[in-house]
């Protein structure tokens, strides 16, 4: 008899826990989809007029907010910037030379990454989907796909992107972007 009472208690606790999770789904969503480095994201997004949720989504996909991550190809930091790209950005943006040696710092990486995203928006006529493809595959590849008709730059025709990794990357970033925009609406003031 004690065995069945324990099962009932556990079942009731489980049902209560599930109801609590669904009742307070924003809490659960923010626990599952946290945003770290919020202040750095907010400042850099404002400086370069980039959507902070897009920066957060890129960071989530690239490193899951792990500032110490270095990829097999050598990309560094939260936004996984390639050293050559970072040096180009430092030169173009007029940052101090030590900036490219500080990419492991979250604030620096986000600042340089936000500048780069803004630059990609300018290069790709504010086409967010093309910007994300260029961020992953490089602007040269994305431009080539658009110019030779391989891909039209739309989400609808994302299957036309020749690199499977880039297709998946764009889809993942957009997924997290939508999650962040819904869960944290109003978090970043304009």
TrEMBL record:
<feature type="domain" description="Transglycosylase SLT">
    <location>
        <begin position="44"/>
        <end position="151"/>
    </location>
</feature>
<dbReference type="InterPro" id="IPR023346">
    <property type="entry name" value="Lysozyme-like_dom_sf"/>
</dbReference>
<protein>
    <submittedName>
        <fullName>Lytic transglycosylase domain-containing protein</fullName>
    </submittedName>
</protein>
<dbReference type="Pfam" id="PF01464">
    <property type="entry name" value="SLT"/>
</dbReference>
<dbReference type="InterPro" id="IPR008258">
    <property type="entry name" value="Transglycosylase_SLT_dom_1"/>
</dbReference>
């Amino acid at each position: 008899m004690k065995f069945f009472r324990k099962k009932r208690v556990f079942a009731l606790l489980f049902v209560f826990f599930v109801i609590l999770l669904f009742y307070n789904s924003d809490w659960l969503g923010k626990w599952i989809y946290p945003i770290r480095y919020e202040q750095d994201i907010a400042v850099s997004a404002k400086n370069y007029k980039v959507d902070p949720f897009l920066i957060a989504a890129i960071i989530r996909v690239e490193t899951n907010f792990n500032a110490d991550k270095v990829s097999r190809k050598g990309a560094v930091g939260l936004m996984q910037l390639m050293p050559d790209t970072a040096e180009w950005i430092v030169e173009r943006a007029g940052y101090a030379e030590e900036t490219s040696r500080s990419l492991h710092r979250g604030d620096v990486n986000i600042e340089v990454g936000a500048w780069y995203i803004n630059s990609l928006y300018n290069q790709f006529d504010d086409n967010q989907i093309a910007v994300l493809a260029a961020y992953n595959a490089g602007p040269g590849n994305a431009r080539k796909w658009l110019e030779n008709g391989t891909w039209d730059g739309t989400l609808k025709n994302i299957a036309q992107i020749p690199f499977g990794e880039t297709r998946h990357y764009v889809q993942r970033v957009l997924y997290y972007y939508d999650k962040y925009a819904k869960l944290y609406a109003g978090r970043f003031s304009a």
